[in-house]
Design a protein that fits this description.
Distance between the termini: 42 Å
CATH superfamily: q2cbj1_9rhob like domain
Radius of gyration: 20 Å
Strand order of the largest sheet: 4-12-7-15-5
CATH class: Mainly Beta
Helix content: 25-40%
Number of strands: 15
Largest sheet: 5 strands, antiparallel
Bound molecules: 2-oxoglutaric acid
Number of helices: 11
Strand content: 5-15%
């Protein structure tokens, strides 16, 4: 049953230019999914791999239903529609989806850590693969999408050699809050965003003007561009996806419909943004991050250093964390491709 025909593709309320030079479709890589060399070449070329139907749709559906049952139990779904539609009540508030929950869900883990996903990554990375333990419960009620950003500042943990794996647990039409990637941004970001990419949202100046605000949680991150008092955004490059594309060139890339079973993975340096969910449906996309197993000690070491610095009372922790990162590995822009 369809209740709403989405008509708008927008980001933060700004309509996305749908002309040919400004908007395009993601290249599907199902044709090379069994060929490790070709997968790697495609990822290097595009900065992403979009593999429709990579996963078992029924397994993903089981995850969707589990998520929706929780939302239903919380009273946020419109009972006039079948559960699977995920139609929210107009007055839906809290959804009952906690960030901790996906890690404890066998059904979600069966999809995100299951054979199909693991095989795809093992082929791509050519060796044993390690997932971050954390699963990001990405969901979007009707609302603005997330602003353009690169995942390195959130997920880097001492290495850019991590891949985000965005996984739709539901079919998402245009206007339903799907992700869009900025064409060729994985090549441009290392130079255009060098300062930004050196940041880590979990660091801040422990004796700077924002320290109290960060500790109290009223400021989430000291923004890379203007670390002025009170300046706290969420790790984004800018709020304006339209202007960003006009400045950088290339097209925003998305797909007419993300489908359950699809996988979209991309590099830490690929600029991406959420589009606004203009439907009445809940968009569900729990996501994981993966890297070479051999990088695990480095990531753990970075985490340890970061945590140690939480206890420090002097100096710019951000600088030190970056120095540790560069000492351990170096921020290798060429690896962002
Ligand atoms: O799913 C979304 O809305 C945003 C996802 C995203 O940007 C990410 O996982 O890095």
């Amino acid at each position: 049953m369809t209740t709403t025909t989405p008509i708008t593709l927008a980001a933060h309320g700004r309509p996305i230019d749908r002309s040919e030079h400004a908007l395009g479709w993601l290249r599907a890589s199902g044709d090379v999914a069994a060929d490790p060399e070709a997968l790697r070449a495609r990822l290097a070329e595009d900065g992403y791999l979009y593999v429709p139907g990579a996963l078992d749709r029924e397994e993903v559906r089981a995850g969707r239903l589990e998520l929706l049952r929780r939302v239903e139990a919380h009273g946020a779904l419109d009972p006039a529609y079948p559960l699977e539609e995920g139609i929210l009540r107009p007055d839906a508030g809290e959804l009952g989806l906690t960030q901790e929950y996906p890690m404890s869900s066998d059904v979600l883990r069966a999809v995100l850590y299951g054979d199909r996903m693991t095989t795809l990554f093992a082929r791509l990375l050519g060796g044993e693969v390690r997932s971050y333990d954390f699963i990001w419960l990405r969901h979007q009620a009707p609302s603005h999408g997330v602003a353009p950003h690169c995942d390195l500042v959130f997920m880097g943990r001492g290495t850019p050699d991590v891949l985000t794996c965005w996984t739709p647990f539901g079919d998402i039409p245009l206007g339903g809050g799907g992700l869009m990637l900025l064409e060729d941004s994985h090549r441009k970001s290392a130079t255009r965003l060098a300062d930004y990419l050196r940041q880590d949202v979990d660091t801040y100046c422990v004796n700077g003007p924002n320290a109290d605000a960060v500790r109290e949680g009223t400021l989430r991150w000291e923004h890379w561009e203007e670390p002025a008092p009170g300046r706290g955004r969420d790790g984004e490059i800018t709020e304006n996806a339209v202007a960003l594309r006009e400045d950088w060139g290339g097209r925003w890339l998305t797909t007419p419909e993300y489908r359950m079973g699809d996988v979209l993975l991309f590099t830490m340096g690929t600029v991406h943004a959420g589009t606004d969910n203009t439907t009445d449906r809940l968009r569900l996309t729990p996501s994981g991050r993966r890297l070479f197993r051999e990088l695990e000690p480095l990531v753990l070491d970075y985490e340890r250093k970061l945590l140690n610095r939480l206890g420090e009372s002097e100096g710019r922790r951000v600088d030190r964390a970056v120095a540790a990162l560069e000492e351990a590995l170096g921020l290798r822009p060429e690896k962002l491709q």
